[in-house]
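Good day; I would like, with your permission, to put a structural problem before you. What I wish to show you is a protein chain and, alongside it, a tokenised description of its three-dimensional fold. I would ask you to consider whether the tokens describe a fold that such a sequence might reasonably adopt. You will find the record immediately after this paragraph:
***
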Amino acid sequence: METTTLIGAAAAAASTLSFTPQAWKIIKSRDTSSISLRMYAITTAGFALWLLYGVRLGEWPLIFTNGFCFCLAAFILTMKALPQRRKEQVADALDPSA
């Protein structure tokens, strides 16, 4: 495998995995008070645009990576925007052991 391909794969993995701990922390704690609504709104919009860009180019690495990142960022953004009662319902559905 080419060095450039390996670098791209590592970047995709790091980008994709970077949102997972935050999403899981929200599910476990039900707390989004320290998260910036504006930051996640901009990040989610950015991933949506990257996803659209990848679709337009037909580039599966861009589509997969940014599609996954978009979903995680949109989940975090949604949880931030939800009222506490609804946030707890969503988190309970995703982690019934809590």
Q: What stands out?
A: The radius of gyration is 15 Å. The mean pLDDT is 93. The chain has five helices and no strands. Residues 60-81 form the longest helix (22 residues).
